[in-house]
Amino acid sequence: MKMSELLYLHGRPSVSGVIRATADDFRVTEDLGYQPDGEGEQLLVRLRKTGCNTRFVADALARYLKIPAREVSFAGMKDRHAVTEQTFCLRLPGKEMPDMSGFELEGCEILQVSRHKRKIRTGALAGNAFSLILRDISDRQAAEQRLALIAEAGAVNYFGEQRFGRDGHNLTMVTQWACGEITVRDRNKRSLLLSAARSAMFNQVTSARLAAQGDLQTLMCGDCVQLTGRGSWFVVKDDEREDVQERVCRHELRLTAPLAGRGDAGPQEDAKRFEQQILDQKPGLCALLCKEKTDAARRAMLVVPKNMHWQWQDDATLKLDFWLPAGSFATSVVRELLLQGGVIEDIAE
User: Fold this and answer.
1) Binding residues for substrate
2) What end-to-end distance do the CA atoms of the chain give, in Å?
3) Distance CA 110, CA 19 (A)
4) What value, to the nearest 5°, has the Cα angle with vertex 88 and ends 83 and 90?
5) pLDDT in tens, 42-94
6) Which residues take part in binding substrate (predicted)?
7) How does pLDDT run across 150-178, given as a tens digit for each residue?
8) Which ranges in the chain belong to alpha helices (H)?
9) Which residues are catalytic, by number?
10) Residues at the annotated binding site?
11) Is residue 346 scored above 50 in pLDDT?
12) Residue 344 has pLDDT above 50, yes or no
């Protein structure tokens, strides 16, 4: 299912505009949720980058410090066409701090270097703060109304189209892989393709749920819910349903959809049947995820931006700021606001 076919939480926008006319229009600041320990075998390098993708910078840091690329980790990918701040973690035993003053990479500026005890792992961040400039907005009044809706009720927590590659190439490749038409040997590429597969199925289930119920806050029997901002989830029992429904409406809990894989996906009864009938449409991809030992997980279907505020620079130019939890996409929030032109390729997790 293409992004254009996915439903909107507030209906299809009537406003058009341009996101990310330049890299400076899209600023991302990674929020790890903690400060470095100041000691330990891990070296944390926080930098600001423009025009570089995350893996490219990680490899450059490894070469500079003469360590294997596998010894460099980061919490999430940040895209090339933006101004982003993020922290790279390099395993570097020893008490001496390396001299990073000689590190040079076009578009990169080191902001902080410190020691830390624990390795940064994928997904191990609190979230990301975004500061966006949206241009050529066609209707200021309609945009204001839409902004108020998003600030209050949120947006669908879709994986952005950038997860699927240019023109959906990642989905094409993972489908070919599942059918045995190609072999994928590179570990990073395999991970990327598997992620694209389960992201697409999550989007499809979430859109179908929105179509069936008209919102993402009405419980089904056997639903799995997640404490807002947390990764753990639980199945709602019949005697808990009324209380849980109230907590969902207060945004304390979120309804979830599956990230397909091996093991129990979580839901029971009506919710399980609803999800399974959609996942069953992709038997090859589901089988591949199980074969590759990708564990099933859950993801919230709704995201409500925090600290959302905006300012008009003129009648057609808007500065929009907000914070999203780890794994949520700024472009999915902006998708609820306006029909977009410009470069849309952010990856922020």
Assistant:
1) 26, 128, 329
2) 22
3) 27
4) 160
5) 999 999 999 888 999 999 999 999 999 999 999 988 878 899 999 999 999 88
6) 26, 128, 329
7) 999 999 999 998 889 888 899 999 999 99
8) 54-65, 140-153, 169-178, 187-213, 241-249, 269-279, 283-291, 330-337
9) 79
10) 26, 128, 329
11) no
12) no
